[in-house]
Amino acid sequence: MSGTANGKEDWRDKHIFTTGEAAKICNVSQQTIIRCFDSGRLEGFRVPGSRFRRIPRAELVRFMKKNGIPTDSMESGRTRVLVVDDDPEIVAVLREALERDSRFEVETAACGYDAGLLTESFKPHVILLDYMLPDINGNLVCKRVRENPARADTRIIVVSGVVKHNEVDALLSAGADEFVRKPFDVNALMDRIDELATAK
Amino acid sequence: MPTVNDPTRAKRIELILREVDTIPTPSPIALKLLSLASDDGAEVSEVVSLIESDPGMTARLLGLCRRSVTGLGSSVTTVNRAVVMLGMDAVRAMLLSVDIHEFMLARRDEELDGATDDAQDEVHIDRMGLWRHALAVACASERIVQTHAERFSDVKPDEAFVCGLLHDIGKIALDLMLPRSSWKAVQLAQRRGESLASIEKLLIGIDHTLVGKRLAERWNLPELIRDVIWLHGRLPRAIPDLPHKRMIGVVSAADEIARMMHVGVSGNGAMPMSLARIALTWGFEAEKLEQIAVSLHTRVSVRSGQLGMDQTPPTELLVQSLGVANRTLVQLNDRHRKRTQRQLQLETTLKSLQGFSAALMESPTPMDVMHRIAESGRAMFDGERVVGLLRVDDATAWSLALIDEDGRIRRTTHAAIGLDSAALHTDGRAVEELPGDVLRRIADALSLEDSDVKKLSPMVLHSNEHSGAVMLHAWRLDRERGAAIAAWRAAMSAALERERADRLFEDVTEMNREIVAAQARASEIESYARLGELSAGAAHEMNNPLAVISARAQLLRESMQPGPHRDAADTIVSSAKRLSDLVAGLHFVASPPAIKRKAVDLTDLLPRMIRKVRQARSEVGLETIPVRLMVRGPLPPAYLDGALFSVAVEELVLNAMEAPESHHVELHVQTDEEDDRLMVSVQDDGRGIPPEVLAHAVDPFFSSKDAGRRTGMGLAKVRRIVELHGGRFQLLPGADGRGAEARITLDAWRPEHLKQSTTTASAAA
């Protein structure tokens, strides 16, 4: 049921958990989870018309924290970052910066068309988007992403050398979450990507 | 006045000539006699039978014979005998004289019937005088021919007599048709001393000689008589080469002599020629003419007696002539006096005008001219107070000046007196009085009595819709002062026009200045716009490679041990940022964002700014010096673009910290209660900025090693931000001779200011 990037189970995109999954994540037996669920210490709901128990992500995280269980496994899935820029040097340096950091998984695109395709297949958590692309402008990419409900959680950071205030404003209003001007502080950008990806 | 080519005038003349045709003829016998005149071979028997057919005429002829020819006595008892005794021409002349005399006078008596005497006396020329003049000319003509017999062998004296007698028949005709006009013509000719014919032409359109010619044609008079009537009085060279030219000369000369001797009344005002001149003009002998002149009275008296119509003795005639002469003399004297007077007036006018022109400077103001006119008028008339009114160049109020008896401007003021300068002329004529309420306002404005102003008359010197000039005066501006008035008007109009031109020129100059300023602004805006585009493109293009440089350096740095290599990597990163900031700053200055005002609490914001600067400097390992925030007065919320304003203040604080030898920075914030302005000032105690640098320190990229400050866009950006807030940015030398002060002054920083400025802006729009 869950994503299996790099052979590891990825719970990052899951919102609802079965008692079995919760047991795996918490590294306890399924019976323990069921007991906690039934006693009310772990709150959840039953699938309507059945007795299957389900636990929402937020409640599971609360439960884990309360009982001192590390939440690492919950976060264990890596953040998928799509880098879109027509300058190969920028793409290269960003790829290198992201890949040396274990938190990220990277795909790159050099044009709006590829960006669109990869948004569907790669399902990035965060898109680093240059403003000026050879085929379409960044704000159009922003709009496309925003129009797709399946990508509602995708964050867009515009990374651009553009200085025109009105163009920056246009990007933000087209749906970009953040604007980072080139040249950028690499570490600050990495941290910001991580923050945006996990703040849900 | 109708001109020669005026069709109505031509029509009028035609009407007069037609009227001539309706004048009743003298007796048929007289006409018959006249038509026989030049016909030498006229049958005596024909004339005799003609006379005998009229018993009255017969009786008259016999009576004439008895009276005129001494010695014949009663022996002449038949017409035939009389004609034989006296000669055909003499008989004809006698009979005609009587008939014409009756024609001339009888007509008048008829007209007198039913008319009031006074009126008739006033408007009719003296017919008796005219008759006597005709008789005198006839006598003189006869005598001229007799005395110059050698030249007039072919001309009979009787013929000349008839011509002389009839020469002025046109005057009678004119008087019959247009009594008033011809009387007026006579009066005017006398008064002006000009020839009657010229005055008649002026007044009536046609003179008595032409009318007489028409009458002669109508009566079928012989050509000789017609031409004498028509052309007499003209100088020989003005007479066509006619067979009768000599006779015309005779009658013209006789006319001059008769007028010279003042026998009868000719109505002609021209001075008669001297005898010598007459003789020279028509080729007669002066002595003979003199004899004729001396004996003229006697001759006229005798002839009149012979004709049995007027028994005036020669002495009486002489007395009458003296009377006429005296009258002429009086008229002459009068004319002379008037001329002298006119001369005098013209002289004073001229003198005053000379003074007027001399007193006028090269470009006098209208008020100068008004003053000069007052002085000029004073030179001609007794000193009287005058009031000058001036309206210049669409002004609503008039300038009023009271100029006193001594010619000094006593009082000036401006007042709306309700006078429309365009209404000073109606139908092309200057108004002769001002409305009462206007006069009252003038009196009020100059603290005069109403009556003082009301007794003055206005002289309009200039008037149109833009300006007007009026002098209120008590001068007697008769026609003789026309030259002065014209000069005054010209000077005033010139001054007012010049004034108007000056003002227009000023307007144009001012407009040109504005255009130049607008052009400068436009070209500045244009160059800013171009710079904005350029810097935006440059920034975008530069920022990609800078991002690569910076990011690569950062990645390299990660893999390095602390040491010079890592420091070098850091330098690469910070330099890339500086370069990028520079381009971004350039773009900011060229094309700043629109400011977004929000209520900002400066007491909270300012310390944060200081902290931020200090922190930023410590982070990169730079020294910080103390910054003291000094706030004077309460600080209400300021409506500013907090982010931009912070950028500006932070830049100034940073700048002050970096000033060479600066140890201490003060950030003063104060509001001025009086004019409600906000002042933010950052002062350092460093080395200060030389004045020549101070002037340019704000310019983008201005750099001076002496200044030792951060170069580039910093201060230019600050100035731009302050300008965006409608404020002023100044870089000043330090107050106590050390350091420098950067000062931001904001006039519009509170909601009420901003509301006000938007409403005034919208009202202006």
Task: Please specify the SSE layout and strand pairing.
The complex is a heterodimer of chains A (about 200) and B (about 775).
Chain A: E1 16-17, H1 19-26, H2 30-39, E2 45-46, E3 53-56, H3 57-66, H4 72-75, E4 79-84, H5 88-99, E5 104-109, H6 112-121, E6 126-129, H7 138-147, E7 155-160, H8 165-173, E8 178-181, H9 186-198
Parallel strand pairs in A: 4-5, 4-6, 6-7, 7-8
Antiparallel strand pairs in A: 1-3, 2-3
Helix pairs in contact in A: 1-2, 6-7
Chain B: H1 7-21, H2 28-36, H3 44-52, H4 55-68, H5 79-86, H6 88-112, H7 117-123, H8 127-147, H9 157-166, H10 169-177, H11 179-192, H12 196-203, H13 208-218, H14 223-231, H15 245-260, H16 275-282, H17 286-294, H18 296-306, H19 314-359, H20 366-380, E1 386-391, E2 398-403, E3 409-415, E4 425-426, E5 429-430, H21 436-445, H22 450-454, E6 457-463, E7 468-473, H23 482-558, H24 564-590, E8 598-600, H25 602-619, E9 627-632, E10 638-640, H26 642-657, E11 665-671, E12 678-684, H27 691-694, H28 714-724, E13 728-733, E14 740-746, H29 751-764
Parallel strand pairs in B: 9-11
Antiparallel strand pairs in B: 1-2, 1-7, 2-3, 4-5, 6-7, 8-10, 11-12, 12-14, 13-14
Helix pairs in contact in B: 1-13, 3-5, 5-6, 6-8, 6-9, 8-9, 8-15, 8-17, 8-18, 9-14, 10-11, 10-13, 11-12, 13-14, 14-15, 15-16, 18-19, 19-20, 19-23, 20-23, 23-24, 24-28, 25-26, 26-28
Keywords summarizing the entry:
heterodimer, A: 200 residues, alpha/beta, Multidrug-efflux Transporter Regulator, Chain: A, Domain 2, Rossmann fold, 2 domains, 5-stranded parallel β-sheet, 3-stranded antiparallel β-sheet, 9 helices, 8 strands, 43% helix, elongated, B: 765 residues, alpha+beta, Hypothetical protein af1432, 5-stranded antiparallel β-sheet, 5-stranded mixed β-sheet, 29 helices, 14 strands, disordered C terminus
- Percentage of residues in DSSP E strands of chain B: 5-15%
Which strands sit side by side, in order, in the main sheet of chain B? 3-2-1-7-6
CATH superfamily of the largest domain in chain B: Hypothetical protein af1432
**What is the domain total for the residues of chain A?**
2
